[in-house]
Amino acid sequence: MELLAIVKRECETCQLVGPVLAELKKRGRLELWSQDDPAFPEVAGGSRDDRSLEASWRNKVEIVPTLIRIEGGREVDRAEGWVRADWERVTGVAGLGASLPAFKPGCGSRSLEPGMPERLALRFGDLKLASRAIMVDPMDDPIEVAYDRGWSDGLPVVPPTDLRIARMLAGTTRKPGEALGLIPPNLAECTVEKAAVNAVLAGCRPEYFPVVLATIEAALKPEFSMHGLLATLWFSGPVIIVNGPVARRIGMNSGGNALGQGNRANATIGRALQLLIRNVGGGRPQEIDRAVLGNPGKYTFCFAEDESDPAWIPLNVARGHARGASTVTLFHGDGVQGVADQKSREPESLARSLAMALCAVGHPKLAETSNAILVLSPDHYAIFRQAGWGRPEIEAALREALKRPGRDLVAGAQGVGEGIDPARAEETVDKFRPGGLLVVRAGGEGGLMSAIIGGWIAQRRHTEVQIVSQEVKS
Amino acid sequence: MNEKYSMRDPTAETAAAMRERVAPPEDLSKATIGLMSISKERSHEFLDTLEARLAGRGLAVLRFAKPTHTKPAPENVLADIVERCDVAVVALAD
């Protein structure tokens, strides 16, 4: 039997047990390590130097002092802090520290200080990063090096150092080498590690990483057609809507300015996907990305739905997920079009009013072409809510109000060449296909306004280009 | 700042070496020209015109299409073009 103890001078309990450690050492059975000062404890003649924290890390020390009994090279018992009974049990020696109080709690181990577990895992553990190392000259600025290498979307990126990547990987239980799929347009394989490198670039915190991974998995579903969305001439980019407890847990914004700037999770999760497509997939503007104009949401476009009203059916539940599930929903979206209606007080009026604005998506004379997101603000929602309307009633009223006579829409009608097939002149035509209009709640109070996010015109190919959802795993 | 600073490559780490473009043939008279539609609306009108003009000069033309412009061309379409053509025109029409 051997004994191993780990202490630090800074800890009062470690100082208290000095004489006990001295006695155990005198019995010749103790391997003693200090995390901060090998001269400590003087009464025991000092200790081995564990300022590197390797011994602490290898022995999974959480508290100092920690006393471990080892038999046949394996740990069989451990005591943390000073509890006389525990120390007597571990050592098999009765009457230890008779002059000491029976109990004094220990202090935190230096190996658990913020950022330290990942640092130690990189130094002593199994985590070996596979991505190519890029050395930065001491005279260079890492952020400028990242620009020079083409890793940026135009804004500064966070330099992906080993420690930052290790911390990002600690945000998931998934293995760094796990393959996520092939990233378009170059169809390059993407691992969890490569996703972590790009999440670091984007500025994500480790707790966002499971949402980033779900976003990537959703974007890679064949029916989302990420390749076409990247390559299109149209304005669209991926728009991410986050539902469920994860949105609150990571502090996402679903309230005031939800579609705007100022929230780290909203800003960086959407950016991580776009940087991944740029860096791993090789999709760059004016190359495979053929957008005529693009839109500012192609830097990042990610927000959470407001689920504060228990009467409201969240978007992910409406799309078939269990209530309480955390999900991402990906849409091929353009910029934001505001809709003002400050006079409607009845739900029927407001639904007709919002439908009028929705008819402009893509083009007022097109139908079943682009999809759309309608972001209902709290004040507009309140008008529906007061009338007892929830998601089913709102969607039904919108659908009814979005039916139009084909004769008004056919090519050439109203003196405009654009329009639907002339053969549909006698039909009543829906603006959107079933499931093509996503109604989402978000925003702050104080304004009778809502937002429309128009969709990619290739959504008309509804079997090839679909809105997708993916559950967030740990 | 004596410590070495290193970052990890966020890219797919594919070879960065520049590839020389294949020189265009001096003479098209014996070449087979492939025209590939990416399957956007009306692209066939553009390619029909191009085919008629090339054929009018006595040149051999073959037509190809990928199933949808929203996805990359399948391997078999690309392989077909490589095997049967000397020159290819990939065109965008809108």
What does the model show?
The complex is a heterodimer of chains A (474) and B (94). Chain A has two domains: 2-113, 3-Layer(aba) Sandwich (Glutaredoxin), CATH 3.40.30.10; 143-471, no CATH class. Chain A is an alpha+beta fold and 474 residues long. In chain A, helix 5 crosses helix 7, helix 8 packs across helix 12 and helix 14 packs across helix 16 (391-401). Chain A has 16 helices and 21 strands. In chain A, the strands form six sheets. In chain A, strands 13, 14, 15, 16, 19, 20 and 21 form a seven-stranded mixed sheet that branches. Chain A has a five-stranded mixed sheet with strand order 3-2-1-5-6, covered by helices on one side. In chain A, strands 4-9 form a two-stranded antiparallel sheet. Chain B is of the alpha/beta class. Chain B has a three-stranded parallel sheet with strand order 3-2-4, with helices on both faces. The mean pLDDT of chain B is 83. Strand 10 (133-136) of chain A pairs antiparallel with strand 1 of chain B.
Number of strands of chain B: 4
Q: What does the overall shape of chain B look like?
A: elongated
**How many E strands of chain A?**
21
Assembly of the depicted chains? heterodimer
Helix tally of chain A equals: 16
State the end-to-end distance of chain B: 55 Å
Helix content of chain A: 25-40%
What structural class do you assign from the helix and strand content of chain B? alpha/beta
Low-pLDDT stretches of chain A are: none
* Overall pLDDT metric of chain B: 83
Main interface: chain pair and counts: A-B, 46 and 20 residues
Provide the domain count of chain A.
2
Helix and strand composition category of chain A: alpha+beta
Spatial strand arrangement across the major sheet of chain B: 3-2-4
Radius of gyration of chain B: 20 Å
Beta fraction of chain A:
15-25%
Estimated share of beta-strand residues of chain B: 15-25%
